Every structure is written in structure tokens, then in C-alpha cells.
């Protein structure tokens, strides 16, 4: 019953936000505090569907990756041929094409990257519901397969069988890191990052705490510093943006998100990307090109710094309506798995009749309260800081941060819905 209510609330929220978007600016407009700015086309006029999945580079050549044939009609999932095209970066000349570079029975290319002198490509089963995945390794001179590693057959309890389909790969700190999409409710709909040794034996798997509501999630991954990764989320997901996640040593917490800033940048963000000389390059599947973009800084969510000690019941250090002991408990529906120093991780904003918070997150007061204050740019008259929460700082979706100046669908409305009936009464 609770699942059906949550599903209905999600549909309601999406419908409401879509109708409101028709009346005002959308998030990610030029007034946003940070985002992706289009600079130029690195390659354009590519064959039909050539940039369907991803792009990689070794500093001299682009490697453009697709799972689709050039003759593939729109909305046709068949006619696949797993092709890699190699272009010289300096002049854009096509140097080599390798069609059927990897068997399409059953493999289908996702994103890839040049690592350790070879091209590594994530390969998944061409049928979405079949949890099978490999990493195929190609010689960059000939584009011939030199190695292939099976991540899981879907039945061995490995990461692939639990987390969905592999979509992107990077190498960092002596390990390979693979992005999993969490498609179709796998892992409760959340993407994940798997860590592997050099023979692709699983070391650990780390959840990325965002529910993509049945859509494809993370599509590619790249380490940009010793403790930061960036991923991109497939278009159509409620989290359609380029994201920066911070490595804590034992997992990842969301640091910031970046959306496109202008209409000329029409790349679908949910495909593979690569870095060169400080710029990010995306495979633009719809327009058959490789797009160069600049990542503009966005101020990270401020952290909470108080250091009081936990109080005995009914002490409530952060004043959010949940006692310290409740927040330290194991059951999130009773206020647990929260930070007793974070006043923002229990989304109780109103009580009955619009009165003060009543220590339970319900439909009529809290969820509808956030929805009617929808303010995706923060400039709308409906904006009220009391109904605003910042992105989750992890490890759970309800561990939300301080107000970030907007009340939007993906963070605030879906954020309060995911705490439906959490109670500290």
C-alpha cells in the first residue's frame, strides 16, 4: 500500500512540476549558479548514430563509440553493430572504422575510455532485463579485441547481478571503477560504482543514493581529483545532470550538479564523455557530433559544523523534532539513520491546519506544503526557505542538507515524498 501511495505521489509531483514549468524559467537557465557551457563542436557531421554511446581520447585520437548501425531507424532497438570510429584530434580526419568490433550476441556497447594505453568499453546485454556485463579491451592501433572480462552472469551474487548494467569505466588509485545504472528498480533504482582490481575481481561496490524512478541512471564515470568523481545521468531521469560526487574513503556523497546553460548545447547529457586539456567532451547522440563544454564552478553545499554530544531522550540537539536517540536508531521510518546535528534531514515542515511541525511527514501538510511552494529558480513568490532543502549529503536519500535557494522537483519534492510517513511522534 505504501509503495502505491509513493508511486501516486511521484506521478503527482512530476505532473505538477511539468505544468509549473510552462509558466516560468526552467532550472539550468543562464541565471543558474553553475553548469555546463557550450564552447564548440569537436566533431560534427558524423554518420547517423555514430555518437550513440560515448567518446574517449588518448590525446591524439578520438574514439567514438556506438551500439547502433547507421541505418537504424528512430525508436528501433534492433539493427545494432557495436562500431568504434577513430578520428585524429588535430584535424578531425577519420583514421579507422571497426564495425562489429564486439559481438552483438548478446553484447551491446555502453561508454568507454582509454586507460593504461588501451580502450576499455563497458558492454551490457542487449536485452535490458538481462543482468550480464563485460569490460571489453581494444588495441588502440587496430581496434581489435585483446581482452574481455566478465563482471557477472547475473546469478553469482556479484555487483552486476545486484546493481544493474555497467555503463562507464575509469582507472584510479590502482583500481578500475565501473558505473552501474540501477535501471528498472535494480538496487532500489539507485546507481552504483563498483571497484575492481586489475583482473576485474570485485573489491567493493558503493551506492549513489538517488532513485532514478525506473530510468537509466549513471552512464559514465571519471575521477577528476584524488577524492572527486563526476558522473552523468541518462536523459529522462529526474536527475538529468552532470554530477560531482566526493569520495569519503568508504563511499560517495553528492557535492554538486551541473546542467546545460544555453540552447545551443543540445547534447543529451546522459551519454559517455571524456576529458582533454581541462574541458569535457560529450557524445551527442541526437545530433551526431562530439561537443566541447566548459564546467563552470558551482558553490558546493555548505557542511554542518556543530559538535555537540548526543543527549539522552528526549533531547533534540538539532531541533528538528526527532530526539538524538531516535536519529541514532536503525529504522528511518521512526526517524533513524539521521544526523542528530543536522536540522534538515527530517522533512517535517507543517502540522495540522498549517500549524507548526508535528513530528510526522504526511501528505496533506508536508508533501503538499512543499509542492505548493515549488520555486525552481528561487525567484518565484512561492519560495519559502522553510520548505527548502539542499541535496543529500549521504549516505541516505533523506540525509538532506541546508536550503540551496530553490525548491525543485528532483531534490525537494521527490525528497519529501521519499520521507512519506517517517515519524518521530
What would you say this structure looks like, in words?
- There is one protein chain.
- This protein is mostly beta strands.
- The chain has two domains: 2-25 and 303-417, no CATH class; 35-296, 6 Propeller (Neuraminidase).
- The protein contains five helices and 22 strands.
- The protein has helices at 2-21, 159-163, 324-327, 363-371, 409-417; strands at 35-43, 54-57, 61-68, 80-88, 94-98, 107-115, 118-125, 133-138, 145-152, 166-172, 175-180, 190-196, 202-211, 218-225, 228-233, 242-247, 252-260, 273-276, 279-284, 289-296, 390-392, 400-401.
- It has an eight-stranded mixed β-sheet with strand order 14-15-16-17-1-20-19-18, with no helix packed on it.
- It is elongated, with a radius of gyration of 22 Å.
- 47% of the residues are buried.
Helices and strands, with pairings:
Blueprint: H1 2-21, E1 35-43, E2 54-57, E3 61-68, E4 80-88, E5 94-98, E6 107-115, E7 118-125, E8 133-138, E9 145-152, H2 159-163, E10 166-172, E11 175-180, E12 190-196, E13 202-211, E14 218-225, E15 228-233, E16 242-247, E17 252-260, E18 273-276, E19 279-284, E20 289-296, H3 324-327, H4 363-371, E21 390-392, E22 400-401, H5 409-417
Helix pairs in contact: 1-5, 4-5
User: How is the quaternary structure best described?
Assistant: single chain
CATH topology of the largest domain: Neuraminidase
Give the averaged pLDDT, no decimals. Answer: 79
Separation of the first and last Cα atoms? 21 Å
Number of domain units: 2
The stretches of 5 or more residues where confidence is low (pLDDT under 50) are 1-7, 14-33, 153-160, 298-307
Helix content, binned percent: 10-25%
CATH architecture assignment name of the largest domain = 6 Propeller
H/E topology pattern: HEEEEEEEEEHEEEEEEEEEEEHHEEH
- Rg from Cα: 22 Å
Query: Approximately how much beta-strand content do the residues carry?
Result: 25-35%
Shape: elongated
Helix- and strand-based class? mainly beta
